[in-house]
């Protein structure tokens, strides 16, 4: 089985502001911040994690050039809501990127808290009707605020991604990363991998790894997710 993961990429160079808004979003729903540690220390020492299951983990990256901060959530179900909340609070573009089984992927792009574009390499796999599938074709012009290339170049990258749907997604996601200048090593991983992979890999691949923070929130009573 391939990897399943999701991450939220905020177009900003202020990692502290992103971290504060993540804490604020969870606090508004009754989640209490218990720990805020350097992620590299948590990856090296799981004694820093609670012994019980009554907690929720989030990782916030440092700011990577040319200005992206990535948020990794423990629960996929919360990613969409948190993307919109952060985009609105920070008044910043946000690109939520997901990977399924290492052979399918897509994104949801938000501005000012509103989803303005969606893409899936195989729209039929995420839509229940042909009409809904049309919403996941991807509109390169909608990403004009973060594009570092022409809409035509992004359109070609998305077309190539659709043509290779069902194959390993690495090169297709790399095409998107090139188009918006998003660090590939930030997006080609998810929350759980930081706690199970060799931390030395991240120390070598992520220049901002020392700035990554691991947040632990305590669940409010009878609630485990941000969005319920």
Automatic annotation (TrEMBL):
It comes from the Bacteria. This is Uncharacterized protein. The lineage of its organism: Bacteria, Bacillati, Armatimonadota, Armatimonadia, Capsulimonadales.
């Amino acid at each position: 089985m391939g990897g399943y993961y999701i991450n939220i990429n905020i177009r900003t160079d202020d990692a502290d502001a992103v971290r504060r808004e993540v804490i604020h979003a969870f606090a508004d729903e009754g989640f209490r911040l218990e720990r805020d540690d350097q992620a590299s220390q948590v990856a090296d020492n799981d004694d820093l994690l609670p012994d019980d299951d009554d907690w929720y983990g989030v990782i916030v990256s440092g700011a990577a050039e040319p200005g992206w901060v990535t948020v990794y959530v423990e629960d996929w179900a919360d990613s969409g809501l948190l993307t919109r909340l952060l985009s609105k609070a920070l008044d910043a573009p946000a690109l939520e990127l997901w990977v399924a089984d290492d052979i399918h992927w897509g994104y949801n792009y938000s501005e000012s808290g509103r989803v303005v574009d969606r893409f899936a390499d195989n729209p039929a796999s995420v839509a229940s009707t042909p009409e809904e599938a049309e919403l996941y074709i991807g509109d390169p012009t909608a990403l004009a605020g973060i594009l570092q290339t022409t809409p035509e170049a992004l359109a070609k990258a998305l077309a190539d991604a659709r043509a290779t749907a069902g194959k390993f997604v690495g090169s297709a996601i790399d095409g998107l990363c090139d188009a918006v200048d998003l660090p590939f090593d930030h997006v080609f991983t998810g929350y759980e991998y930081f706690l199970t992979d060799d931390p030395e890999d991240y120390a070598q691949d992520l220049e901002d790894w020392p700035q990554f923070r691991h947040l632990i929130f305590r669940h409010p009573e009878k609630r485990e997710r941000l969005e319920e």
